[in-house]
Amino acid sequence: MDTRIELRVDGEQRSLTVDTRTTLLDALRERLGVTTPKKGCDHGQCGSCTVLLDGRRATTCLALAVAHAGSEITTAAGLADGEELHPVARAFLEHDGLQCGYCTPGQICSAVGMLDEAEAGWPSSVTEHGEGGAALDESELDDEEIRERMSGNLCRCGAYANIVTAIREAANGSGR
């Protein structure tokens, strides 16, 4: 059964008709021509398809498009301000946080979402709680914390050391 939906993708309102079984990733790539999110594993295990969905990071290969009608979707391309790269994307470039680049859009979206989560005080499984159970402050993101929070995004090339360095730099004063 086909359903008409509206999505706001990278700031642009888009309308499309999709089969109710269509994933958000396939709707973006195949129906709207938005190829920034990549199809990696198609099972939610690699993170290549990660976008910000209503401000939160999400793997689009596991999301049905109809379930997110009316949602705001931001891809790595949509994070830029015109020709000005987002500070996280700029840090990835400055620290060689990529090799082949296939996973990079998902890594960048995940990093932006992760930094927002840390800023909001959301702990991870490795967060050390201070007195009274206080959650992590964004400025306290160490390498272990970043690795844990980014563990849903895989890089086949193994650029992890530089990815962690880029995210740490972006967290410590990027003006996101």
Index terms:
single chain; 176 residues; alpha+beta; Ubiquitin-like (UB roll); DNA polymerase, domain 1; 5-stranded mixed β-sheet; 29% helix; 15% strand; globular; 2Fe-2S-bd; 2Fe-2S-bd_dom_sf; iron; metal ion binding
What do you see in this structure?
The chain is an alpha+beta fold. It has two domains: 2-75, Beta-grasp domain (Ubiquitin-like (UB roll), Roll); 87-171, [2Fe-2S]-binding domain (DNA polymerase, domain 1), CATH 1.10.150.120. Helices cover 29% and strands 15% of the residues. The protein has five helices and five strands. It has a five-stranded mixed sheet, with helices on both faces. A hairpin with a 2-residue loop joins strand 3 (50-53) and strand 4 (56-59). Helix 2 (87-94) packs across helix 5 (160-171). The mean pLDDT is 92.
How do the strands and helices of this protein lay out in sequence?
Elements: E1 2-9, E2 12-19, H1 24-31, E3 50-53, E4 56-59, E5 72-74, H2 87-94, H3 104-119, H4 143-149, H5 160-171
Parallel strand pairs: 1-5
Antiparallel strand pairs: 1-2, 3-4, 3-5
Helix pairs in contact: 2-5
